[in-house]
Amino acid sequence: MDFRGLAVFFLLTESALAVKSNACMAARRSFLGSDAMLLAIICTISSVACSAKSFDDAFRTAFLCLLIGVPGAGKVRPAKSPPFYQMDTCAGVCQIHTGGAAWLFHKAESCYSQCSFCESAKGAELTIMGTERKPEFFGGKDLHIGIVGCGYVGLPLALRFCEMGQRVTGFDTDKQKVDKLNAGQTYILHIPEAAIAKFVGQKRFGATTDFTRLKEMDAVLICVPTPLDERREPDLSYVEETARAIAPNLQRNQLIVLESTTYPGTTEELVLPILEAGGLKCPIARAGTNDNVQTDFYLAFSPEREDPGNKQFGLAQIPKVVGGINLPSRRAAELLYGQIVARVIPVSSTREAEMSKLLENIFRSVNIALVNELKLLSQRMGMDIWEVIEASATKPFGFMAFQPGPGIGGHCIPLDPYYLSWKAREYDFEARFIALAGEINTSMPYHVINAVADALNQRRKALKGSKVLLLGVSYKKDVDDLRESPSLKLMQLLNERGAILHYNDPYFPQLQKMRHYDYSHLKSVELTPQNLAAYDCVLLATDHSSYDMQAIVDASQLVVDTRNATRRITRNREKVVLC
Questions:
Q1: CATH assignment of 360-579, given 2.30.29.170, 2.130.10.10, 3.40.50.720, 3.30.70.260?
Q2: pTM of the model
Q3: Looking at the annotation, which residues are catalytic?
């Protein structure tokens, strides 16, 4: 091998290496005329070959150490955080990022092109300045993606990226979840274990509680809860804690995306300052104002649109809205998500992206509140609101059917509108539609309990002391999801009114302690004719498909139906009270 020729070739690439040092320049000037230096290259290459990933890695690592003038180059060994290597020298320790299979000199398809060199009392130190991941990098393969929060949003997202050939590490503070995932097990009913086990076996997916590993990721997606506090104001503690966990591990040209639903301005006002505190900057530049902005890392917002249990629209079929702090950030996020969804919708900034998710759910909240209020009116007027809605839905344009119920549940509709109304007050604006919809929807569980009390009263029974069996505790049918379920509020109100309460739900054999409720002493009651007959009232809160409504009505003394699940029941119809 002609090492002198290779040396000339590498020296010609010095403009692609951001190495600024007088000692470095001196070493370069003397390099071509030094046979001893050529011998040192050969010796150093042989010494690192056993620890580097390949001969190419060994050669460029050894060469770069000599190129920058590190005296007394010795054996290179893996450092504590691969793919870094440390070289012991008589002047100190040099740490080198070999960049895996990418060359240290610049190539068009390479994401590695920068390094920094400094001299100190401890000796010479060389660090490749991370990967120069341009936005186009995130449209490539074999990325390493970190997803913070392995719940109903994060886990399906992780598996979708794995399906497309990417490597994913899930980050979660719940060690039990992490252990289950690493064992190929699931804790979410509609996510099959086979999919998790497959990608764990292929080394494409794993989970950890070690947030220092965030530094190893090309992209980090934040999928953590954004609940309300006891004053019904935004609780962004999970988002803030996650941002603070990322900050000390943030790498140059890393992509960070917030997916958690929140008010407009959260990404700019909360997440960005925390990430920039370490020195790396991501300038705010609305798309179209400064498209050539230079950024040290990428930051974007792309709201999750997960609908648990929806068999018609999975993650791959649902378009993804993306807004960036600046245009490069948006472009990076567009290319990343473009690999897993059919369509990406770019918007001008993170604020528009944040607002779009709120609009989606406020639209639903307001319309559900409308039909809930019309249900109350229809009952007073002696009409069947469900029949009215069914008739109106035959109009082929200009009408969208929403269904009334015992309240609203899930991770979005009960919470998201309050995020915007809270933020609106900062601008001296009162979002009256949001407030009115929230008032109506929040009142529905109270209406249901009053209806139960009235129905019992018609049978000469008081609610206090009556045995009530609540059917369905999940927030909607056929899912194992309790988040903000109106059933939990119904149970609280029944307890407060002195009822003897039990429940049945095929998806929850036993309840656990939750954020606002503790029903850990309750277990699901088996639905047998004998058990059903023992209750003064059966309250249908969630209409799971597995419920045989005719059998339930036949065996029960009284059925209060909040979902119109008994609409086709004719036998023993007198036992049913629609609510």
A1: 3.40.50.720
A2: 0.77
A3: 412
